């Protein structure tokens, strides 16, 4: 039996897959949360967050061009430090984040679905996870195709929002003074930075792309390009969506709104607002599928690397997917989603993700130091990028610890 995954994903599909992981349903609610501290300067907070995400994203791109394997983060840590227990721990940390994210997303799916169909929570979650697990088992091409379609739908929805917001954008020259923060007001900039720390979590997801490495065509070239493209496109969309929000909704309404984008659409058309809700549902489904695909590939990669039981690396003879890992992950997500309160786990997960970012940035520095010359085809990168990426990760961890200790918490998307 050929124990290899099927390489069927090209640059466009991988970029859409990455966008699907980043542009979750959170884009429809996060603008208001960022505005709580950043106020009318929320778009600037998103730009700062994008620049911070780009640092770690570029480190991931550089490492993926050197080590294009599943269980990406675990492989990077092993290559840099050669400490198997640490690499194994990082692999399980990645899997934990995927499981909890998928379970949290599944719970969120219930609320969106019940807008259209009255169905009990248990059966809504079971239906979603059974369908997504089967799709992830059936084939990576089919799974990524569904992800690509739902991502395109999401982008169409966002484009529609921007289109109806064009009259508001035309007022930007006259409103620019009130949207420009004073350079000498430290209090205002602290609020913007707090907003940026929150907005950063809207960009989490690009790291999932590296775990598709063994199913990507020419991964050394394709992965870095797709990661960079996904971050750039999502950054542009987030900025303009935030700008549309502050231009069209009074600040208090924006802050208090649970669905600011839907509220913007409702000002123009109730049917368009309904359409946005439908797209939100698609984004949630997309998020669950992406996490199941990602988690199963990390389990497969760890089994293959000897960091987990070898039977997790079993590949289906005809479908060429890690079906044992996929089914196991789907079952665990279902158990969590139907039985536990995931709020605390979700907070822990966001903390773990930043710890992983810190380790990945340090790993790149170590790998670059070990290299006399960058390998042929490897992405060239200046050491200042992972240095700043590591420093930003430490800052984010410090802010999150402070938030938790002071009774608050930063939520991911």
What brief labels describe this structure?
413 residues, globular, Amino acid/polyamine transporter I, 17 helices
* Span between termini: 40 Å
Counted up, domains total 1
CATH architecture: Up-down Bundle
Low-confidence stretches: 409-413
CATH top level class name: Mainly Alpha
Tally of contiguous helical segments: 17
Structural class: mainly alpha
Shape verdict:
globular
Largest sheet: none
Average pLDDT, rounded to a whole number, is 85
Verbal overview:
There is one protein chain. With 413 residues, the chain is mostly helical. The chain has one domain (11-405): Amino acid/polyamine transporter I (Up-down Bundle). Helix content is 74%, strand content 0%. The chain is built from 17 helices and no strands. The protein has helices spanning 11-22, 30-38, 42-66, 72-81, 84-114, 121-138, 140-164, 166-170, 172-179, 186-200, 219-248, 251-256, 260-268, 270-305, 323-339, 343-370, 384-405. Helix 3 (42-66) crosses helix 10, helix 5 packs antiparallel against helix 14 and helix 13 (260-268) packs antiparallel against helix 14. It is globular. It starts with 10 loop residues before the first helix and ends in an 8-residue tail after the last helix. Mean pLDDT is 85; it is low at 409-413.
């Amino acid at each position: 039996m050929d124990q290899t995954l099927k390489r069927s994903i090209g640059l466009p599909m991988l970029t859409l897959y990455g966008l699907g992981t980043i542009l979750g349903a959170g884009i429809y609610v996060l603008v208001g949360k960022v505005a709580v501290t950043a106020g009318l300067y929320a778009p600037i907070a998103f730009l700062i967050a994008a620049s911070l995400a780009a640092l770690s994203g570029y480190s991931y791109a550089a490492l993926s061009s050197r080590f294009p394997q599943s269980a990406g983060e675990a492989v990077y840590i092993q290559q840099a430090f050669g400490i198997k227990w640490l690499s194994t721990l990082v692999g399980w940390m990645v899997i934990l984040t995927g499981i909890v994210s998928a379970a949290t997303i599944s719970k969120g799916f219930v609320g969106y679905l019940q807008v259209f169909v009255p169905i009990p929570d248990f059966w809504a979650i079971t239906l979603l996870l059974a369908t997504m697990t089967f799709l992830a088992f059936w084939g990576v091409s089919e799974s990524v195709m569904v992800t690509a379609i739902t991502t395109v739908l999401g982008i169409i929805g966002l484009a529609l929002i921007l289109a109806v917001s064009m009259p508001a954008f035309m007022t930007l020259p006259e409103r620019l003074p009130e949207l420009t923060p004073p350079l000498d007001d430290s209090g205002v900039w602290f609020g913007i930075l707090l907003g940026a720390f929150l907005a950063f979590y809207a960009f989490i997801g690009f790291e999932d792309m590296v775990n598709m490495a063994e199913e990507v065509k020419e991964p050394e070239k394709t992965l870095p390009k797709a990661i960079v493209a996904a971050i750039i496109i999502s950054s542009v969309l987030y900025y303009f969506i935030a700008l549309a929000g502050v231009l069209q909704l009074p600040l208090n309404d924006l802050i208090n709104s649970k669905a600011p984008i839907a509220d913007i659409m409702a000002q123009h058309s109730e049917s368009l607002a309904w359409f946005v809700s439908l797209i939100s549902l698609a984004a949630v489904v997309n998020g669950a599928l992406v996490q199941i695909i990602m988690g199963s590939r990390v389990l497969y990669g760890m089994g293959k690397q000897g960091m987990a039981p070898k039977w997790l690396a079993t590949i289906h003879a005809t479908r060429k997917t890690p079906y044992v890992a996929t089914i196991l992950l789907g079952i665990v997500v279902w158990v969590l989603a139907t039985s536990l309160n995931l709020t605390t786990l979700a907070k822990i997960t966001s903390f773990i993700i930043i710890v992983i970012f810190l380790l990945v940035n340090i790993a790149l520095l170590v790998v670059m130091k070990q290299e006399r010359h960058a390998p042929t085809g490897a992405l060239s990168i200046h050491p200042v990028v992972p240095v700043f990426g590591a420093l930003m990760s430490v800052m984010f961890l410090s802010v999150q610890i402070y938030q938790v200790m002071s009774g608050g918490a930063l939520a991911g998307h």
